[in-house]
Fold these 2 entries.
Entry 1:
Amino acid sequence: MVKICCIGAGYVGGPTMAVIALKCPNVQVTVVDIAEPRINAWNSGTLPIYEPGLDDVVKQCRGKNLFFSTEVEKHVAESDIIFVSVNTPTKTQGLGAGKAADLTYWESAARMIADVSKSDKIVVEKSTVPVKTAEAIERILTHNKKGINFTILSNPEFLAEGTAIQDLFNPDRVLIGGRETPEGQKAINALRDVYANWVPKERILCTNLWSAELSKLAANAFLAQRISSVNAMSALCESTGADVSQVSHSIGTDSRVGPKFLNASVGFGGSCFQKDILNLVYICECNGLPEVANYWKQVVKVNDYQKSRFVNRVVSSMFNTVSSKKIAILGFAFKKDTGDTRETPAIDVCKGLLGDKARLSIFDPQVTEDQILKDLSMKKFDKDHPSHLQPASPTSIKQVSIVGDAYEATKDSHGICILTEWDEFKKLDYQKVFDSMQKPAFVFDGRNIVDADKLRKIGFIVYCIGKPL
Ligand code: NAD
Ligand code: UGA
């Protein structure tokens, strides 16, 4: 029986390994993590992350061929294939701070693998890493161990949160990069055999190591670039009377462009787009390519511009001040169907409104009060680091209340900001909401999900992204 161990039981390690276990009954999969509460949660009835369909997959295999454990070294030593899926956040200090990837967690995992291994291993980069990381990891792994062969593969993950299980069941592609040596090719084939249990062969792409590492950064940069492009157009739409949804549709029907991922929004969030682009920018700078670096930097700059543009619009339309006004924030997660708030645009929007002395009443169906308060008191980039490096949760922040439903959030408010596209916000009884609000009642739809005409008939003043008033 092939034994797989995955270091890192997070948003990627947990779901990815659960699906491998489900699809490969002959493989034993153990997910290990140094965070005991996280492992306990994976072993409990309440999983540590919210992801549609995940509970079901875990229930089917946990205790059979899927295990979660804090005995990191033991399981690493026993395994044939070791996935490393630890966090690779943006560095907050030192050389490359604010841009470069922090590989501390990766390096410590690699050193541990080198220390405890007693047999040959295939070590798989699952985390998103800078191109050429495998070279450094190889040097760490082979440093002390005479006689043990470590073969490194790059197998970046392309799942998106909220659709992780669907993405893993039916991936557009699986990418495996390896050395162009007999050992490298043998390792590629071993990993390809695992995926071939459910992924059609033509969708398993095999490349050299550096292409695989760079393809992951490039894929996220291209995806984020589409959003910044459409968001840049949304600003022009607002100034000209064009409607960004009509523009997106017109562009997207060109088969060379395609219709997906062209929704204008308050800005992209999530743990990876910004981090990976900044990392790409840093790599370009280090390789003496400032023009290329500046090109990609602009994607993040437009995203920051979109968030501050949203805040400015709220304040300027509410008679240039939101001081002491109650603003309802509907949605805090970075997208629907996840409780993840890493780099969510809601953080910047809320901080912007608080800067103008607004009172915020926040509701999100999946994000806890504790998490929201932590996010609003944390510095940029700290979020993706382990919890012991994060500030203790404040019991409260003046001017912020976290409430249990959308009606409570909107009651007596002067304005509503929709920041996450949760389906339940489309279905609210907006007449009831309007009746309970201060007048004039404003809606700022940061996700373009409401029927603006219907709301205007009720009496709301509605601002959508990139649409005429
Ligand atoms: P995460 O923070 O949710 O999980 C990482 C886990 O690794 C944490 O639980 C942490 O405790 C653990 N860890 C860190 N160092 C460890 C060590 N030395 N030994 C054992 N455990 C250790 O992160 P994530 O969202 O799962 O992302 C992991 C990687 O995958 C990142 O590089 C990210 O860029 C990439 N990625 C993420 C997504 C996503 O949707 N979140 C998608 C594709 C790729
Ligand atoms: C993204 C990629 O889609 C995954 O392929 C990749 O594996 C992952 O990053 C990663 O490397 O972490 P994710 O961040 O989970 O996945 O979610 P997306 O669906 O890509 O959304 C990212 C952000 O862009 C969200 O805030 C979303 O609301 C926003 N978005 C997305 C838009 O504003 N408009 C769109 O048209 C699409």
Entry 2:
Amino acid sequence: MATKKTKGGNEKKVQLNKDMVDNKDKILTTNQGVNVHDNNNTLKAGERGPSLLEDFIFREKIFHFDHERIPERIVHARGSAAHGTFTLYKSLKKYTRASFLCDTGTETPVFVRFSTVAGSKGSTDLARDARGFAVKFYTHEGIFDLVGNNIPVFFIQDAINFPDLIHAVKPEPDNEMPQAASAHDTFWDFVSLMPEAAHMVMWTMSDRAIPRSLRMMEGFGIHTFRLVNEKGDSVFVKFHWKPLLGVHGVAWDEAQKISGFDADFHRRDLWENIEKGNYPEWELGLQIFTQEEADKFSFDVLDPTKLVPEELVPVQRVGKMTLNRNPENFFAETEQAAFHPGHIVPGIDFSDDPLLQGRLFSYSDTQLSRLGSTNFHELPINRSVAPVHNNQRDGFMRRDIVKGKASYFPNSLGGGCPYHAMMEGRGFGSYPEKVSAPKVRGRSKSFADHFTQARLFYQSQTPEEQAHIADAYSFELGKVGGVAIRKRYLGILAEIDRDLAGKVASRLGLRVPKGLSEDTLRFARQNHPDYPVKPPKPEVEKSPALSMAMQKNNSIATRKIAFLVAGGVADNSVDQLKKELEKGGAEVVFIAPDVGNIKTSGGQKIEIGHSFLTDASVLYDGLYVPGGEKSVKTLQKEPDVFHFIHEMYRHCKPLAFSEDAEQLLEHTYIKKEKNDKGLLFGSGNTLVKGFISALKSHRVWEREPKRKVPA
Ligand code: HDE
């Protein structure tokens, strides 16, 4: 069936609207539709007497309340989501028969949920962790879920290790500490015995694991999937999401402080930007390669701890996803959304990646204990826009009322319906991959190289990014109590990069071991008896695509800039920069000693919604102190101003000072450095240009080695 064009991708919205309830101008009722006269007082025997069991209104209300929690997701519990559309601009007919990937211009409704992995539902958004990036496509041929992460590789190679990994990273079982953090003994104990985790651990130690915004991170399907065309020919594919706002992280010190100031930082940022019409956008990128090409790669494409370097197989951008609508109800939509890598449509198929194969069991299984019924597909958010007809029946909370006598196949009483799609030459059919092999519990030799791509990632980073990675390992291992675990991990780092291992070892007061510890080797040899094996030569030694700092970024859209002001701030000193920043799509936020109103030197009123008490520098991307003698004098008396400035500087963010405000620096530890492109003074076009250009780079990386000021 050809995909119909649905302008605006509204089809899912129309379907959801049928289930929406609007309480506006309505009388309060019970769940049975009876109007409630008084919602404040229980039924009693006399005003001061005991309550009566008869009070069905009270009983119903409390009964429902008592049961309104459901289990949180076992992983990825903390999440935020939005609706949107996916528009295809390059037909992939040659490779796939999935109609949403064939008909250009088609808008497919999507629902996207971002998440952290380890933390509970109420934990901070800024944990050092992978981010889930799960996309539900409501296609005309059924639901396709691309359940990915913001990191293109995974910790483990075989699904059977997943419960162990998660037990190791979750809070420790005796004392339930620490929350949403990998910096503890059980995690490092596990990964120090599982060298296959080394590559993903390297990613999680980079600033990729602490995104600036959910809108500014990449997404990856991780596993190799298949595309299958009309003729039945198949190619392999890796799915990517490329954010149009660029890929940016925060620094670890920022992350920890943001967690205190606004634990909902990412959730708020996503929600507010969609409300403002700053719709986040990603391009869908595909790496397509054949079986023959895959056979020649130096790594195994079925091994989920490996990526395909973009320099080896370029990413083709084939469509755009735009998130343009916030959910109406967090529980009904974000919480009840049930993603599953096994939700695929004709034209897409699985590979034999053993992690993917295991995932195919886990997701519907977990929905059952989380959502309580096999009928979770009937929940409005999970409902396909393609019609659903089958002989599955009943179960808890069944909603569809399926007509007729025949609930079996084959039947004649129901006219043979619902019938096989085969009758019309369509429907999902698995790719007929040839498989003939002995049944084994084992690991392929081609999965035995654990360090080449971890090294590739590290060596592809700029020196400043490498410094952040070394800091992260030092922090995390520094939090580990067991010295044996620290030493064991240093053995892994030594195999990846001795210089990195040396930096971390010196912070831990340890020496770099010669190589892997006996414990690590013993465990690795359970999978590969002749471990370590010499890996084949990699195709690329460096991949600039892996560095965030090396990505070009020409936009300052939606960055938040703090203007520190007080009464008497000079109008002209505010206006020009504000206008230019807003022209570029950035947001200017005035921060003053107190919330309320201030008057500019020209008598204009500025409404102040944020003060040094309510806000902190870590919530902003750049800072400007406009002129006006009175304003600067007031700011000078405010210690928080200096904290704000120091912290911004320390996090390598752009700072600009008008001529009047330059003197504030005399009271700081900041030294004017000529090559610091993000420390700007004066006014006019030079200041505007310099500031905007520094904001585009997001961080003034050259400052990284010198940034050590108290904050
Ligand atoms: Fe998941 N994962 N996972 N995972 N995963 C879940 O399903 C699981 C893995 C990912 O926003 C659970 O509905 C196993 C890789 C995301 O609702 C559960 C294995 C990747 C989400 C589950 C993996 C992911 C989940 C928990 C190893 C990146 C959140 C709640 C074989 C490609 C989806 C749920 C959302 C959620 C199992 C590994 C991504 C238990 C067994 C690799 C984005 O079913």
